[in-house]
C-alpha cells in the first residue's frame, strides 16, 4: 500500500523573487513585485499594474535551440522545473523509465507567442508565421516541454481550471502516486502580460483600475477594487514518501494530506458557492477537523463581493476570526494558473520555518469580513495549512498540507 504523498522539491519564479529562497526572503520582508506594466504599452488600457518577473534572462537558463519554440511562460516553467528537480536531488535518468509523470495547470496557454505569430500573419502573411506556432501556444505546452526536456515517460496531463489549477494539478499528482508511480512533477506557471492576455481579463470586470501599485490590490479591505494580474508560479516535486526516503531524499517540505474540488452552482440557482464545501472536504480528506488547521492561505480575489463570499466561507468553517488567514499574493498579483501552485509552495515554506507571511498593503479587513488577517509576518508553531483557490468559471479547490518529519529523523 502506498504511503503518503510528500513534496521534496520546489522551483519558484515569482515577481518578487527568482528561486525559492530569494522569493521567500522577499515575501517575509513584505517586498512587492507589483508595478507598472513594462512588457507592453498598457497606457491605452484602464488597468496598468501587474506583477512581472522582471529580472529573468531566458538565455541564462534555456538552451538556444529551445528559444525559438518557447514562450516566456514556458521558459519560466522549464526553469522552475529544473530548479525543483535539483532541489529534490532527483536525476531523472536514475529513476525507472516510466517513473516520473508531469501534471501542470494552464489557463489560456502561451498567449504572448500566439499573439506575435498572429501579428505576423496579419501584417506580413502566412510565410512569416513560425512553424512552432502549431504547438508553442498550446495550453499543454508546459507539460510537454518539461517531459521532453527531461525524457519523462510517466503519466502526464494538464488541468484547465484557471487560478484553481495549481491545486488541482497537485491533487492529480497525488492520484498518480497512489496508483504506484514514485514521483510526479506538478504545479503551474503562467504568463499572460500582453494585449491578447490582458483584454479578456479586463472584460471580466474583476481587474483593478487603480494605478498605484500599493493600492491596486487590497483583498478583504474596505477599499478593495479588483485584482492585479501577475506572471510566474511554482513547480513542485511530489513523491511517494517511502520512495523518497528509500532514495535518500535530502528534504521533505510537507505532506499533501487532503484535497478537494467543487464547482459553483449556476448563477440564480439559490445554492451557495462551493468554496466552503471544498475546504470542508479537503480537511475531512486529511482526517482532520477545522480546529486542526493552523493557517489558511486565502484565494483573496480582491473583489468585494468575492472577498465577502470567501470570508463567509471561512467563518462558516472556522468561526469568525477563527484561524489566521494570509494572502501573500498581494506581493505578486494573481498568477492565473500559476497562482495556487505558488501559494502551496509558500505554505510549505511557512510550515518549514514556522512563520506566516504577511498580506501587504492591507491594514485591516473590512468590518463585514470577519477574518483574522495576517498583515505582518507572524511566528507560530505551524503543523497544518489550508490553501484555497477559485478559478474563473466557478472552480474551487482546497489543499491541506501537513508538516512532515525530515528523512534523517527516522
Properties at a glance:
alpha/beta; single chain; twelve-stranded mixed beta sheet; 410 residues; globular; 16 strands; 11 helices; two-stranded antiparallel ribbon
| Number of helices, where a helix is a run of at least 4 consecutive DSSP H or I residues | 11
What is the global morphology?
globular
Distance between the termini: 19 Å
Helix content: 25-40%
What order do the helices and strands follow? EEHEEHEHHHEHEHEHEHEHEHEEEEE
Cα radius of gyration in angstroms: 20 Å
Which whole number gives the mean pLDDT? 94
Most strands sheet: 12 strands, mixed
Q: What's the total number of strands?
A: 16
Description of the molecule:
- This protein has 410 residues and is an alpha/beta fold.
- The protein has eleven helices and 16 strands.
- The longest helix has 17 residues, at 72-88.
- The chain is globular and about 60 Å long.
Spell out the blueprint of helices and strands:
Layout: E1 5-14, E2 17-18, H1 20-28, E3 34-36, E4 49-51, H2 72-88, E5 100-105, H3 111-123, H4 133-136, H5 141-150, E6 156-159, H6 165-178, E7 183-190, H7 195-203, E8 232-240, H8 241-246, E9 254-263, H9 275-285, E10 296-297, H10 304-318, E11 324-326, H11 339-353, E12 355-356, E13 372-373, E14 378-379, E15 384-391, E16 395-402
Parallel strand pairs: 5-6, 5-7, 10-11, 10-15, 11-13
Antiparallel strand pairs: 1-2, 1-8, 1-9, 3-4, 7-8, 9-16, 12-14, 15-16
Helix pairs in contact: 2-5, 6-11, 9-10
Amino acid at each position: 500500500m502506498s504511503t503518503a504523498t510528500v513534496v521534496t522539491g520546489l522551483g519558484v519564479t515569482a515577481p518578487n523573487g527568482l528561486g525559492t529562497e530569494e522569493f521567500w526572503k522577499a515575501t517575509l520582508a513584505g517586498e512587492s513585485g507589483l508595478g507598472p506594466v513594462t512588457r507592453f504599452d498598457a497606457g491605452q488600457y484602464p488597468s496598468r499594474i501587474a506583477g512581472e518577473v522582471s529580472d529573468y534572462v531566458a538565455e541564462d537558463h534555456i538552451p538556444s535551440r529551445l528559444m525559438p519554440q518557447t514562450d516566456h511562460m514556458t521558459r519560466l516553467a522549464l526553469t522552475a522545473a529544473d530548479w525543483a528537480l535539483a532541489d529534490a536531488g532527483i536525476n531523472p535518468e536514475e529513476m525507472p523509465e516510466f517513473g516520473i509523470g508531469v501534471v501542470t495547470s494552464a489557463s489560456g496557454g502561451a498567449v504572448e507567442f500566439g499573439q506575435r505569430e498572429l501579428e505576423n500573419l496579419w501584417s506580413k502573411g502566412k510565410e512569416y508565421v513560425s512553424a512552432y506556432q502549431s504547438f508553442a501556444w498550446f495550453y499543454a505546452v508546459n507539460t510537454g516541454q518539461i517531459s521532453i526536456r527531461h525524457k519523462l515517460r510517466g503519466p502526464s496531463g494538464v488541468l484547465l481550471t484557471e487560478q484553481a489549477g495549481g491545486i488541482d494539478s497537485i491533487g492529480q499528482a497525488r492520484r498518480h502516486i497512489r496508483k504506484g508511480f514514485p514521483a510526479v512533477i506538478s504545479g503551474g506557471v503562467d504568463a499572460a502580460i500582453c494585449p491578447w492576455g490582458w483584454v479578456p481579463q479586463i472584460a471580466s470586470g474583476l481587474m483593478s483600475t487603480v494605478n498605484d501599485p500599493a493600492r491596486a490590490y487590497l483583498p478583504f479591505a474596505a477599499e478593495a477594487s479588483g485584482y492585479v494580474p501577475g506572471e510566474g508560479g511554482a513547480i513542485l516535486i511530489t513523491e511517494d514518501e517511502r520512495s523518497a526516503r528509500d532514495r535518500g531524499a535530502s528534504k521533505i517540505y510537507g505532506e499533501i494530506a487532503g484535497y478537494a474540488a467543487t464547482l459553483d452552482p449556476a448563477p440564480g440557482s439559490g445554492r451557495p458557492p462551493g468554496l466552503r464545501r471544498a475546504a470542508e472536504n479537503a480537511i475531512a480528506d486529511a482526517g482532520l477537523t477545522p480546529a486542526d488547521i493552523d493557517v489558511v492561505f486565502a484565494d483573496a480575489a480582491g473583489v468585494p463581493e468575492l472577498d465577502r463570499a470567501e470570508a463567509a466561507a471561512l467563518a462558516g468553517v472556522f468561526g469568525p476570526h477563527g484561524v489566521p488567514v494570509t494572502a501573500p499574493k498581494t506581493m505578486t498579483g494573481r498568477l492565473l494558473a500559476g497562482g495556487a501552485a505558488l501559494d502551496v509552495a509558500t505554505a510549505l515554506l511557512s510550515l518549514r520555518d514556522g512563520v506566516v507571511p504577511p498580506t501587504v498593503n492591507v491594514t485591516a479587513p473590512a468590518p463585514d469580513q470577519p477574518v483574522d488577517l495576517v498583515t505582518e509576518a507572524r511566528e507560530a508553531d505551524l503543523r497544518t495549512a489550508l490553501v484555497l483557490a477559485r478559478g474563473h468559471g466557478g472552480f474551487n479547490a482546497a489543499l491541506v498540507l501537513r508538516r512532515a518529519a525530515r528523512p534523517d529523523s527516522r
